[in-house]
Amino acid sequence: MQLKYFLLSTLLGGAARAALNEPCYGSGGRAGVCVTTTTCSSGGGVTINGGCPSDPANVKCCSKASCGASPGNCRWTSDCGGSSVSNLCPGPAGFKCCQSTATGFGGYGAPAIPAVGGCKAVAVDGARKIVNAWPGRIRQIYCTRDCACGSGSDHCCGKATDMMCSDAGGTPTISGRQIAEWVMNNRGTLNLKYVIWGQRIWNPSQDAVAPWTSWRGMEDRGDVTQNHWDHVHVSYN
Question: Which region is the signal sequence (predicted)?
Answer without folding.
Answer: 1-18
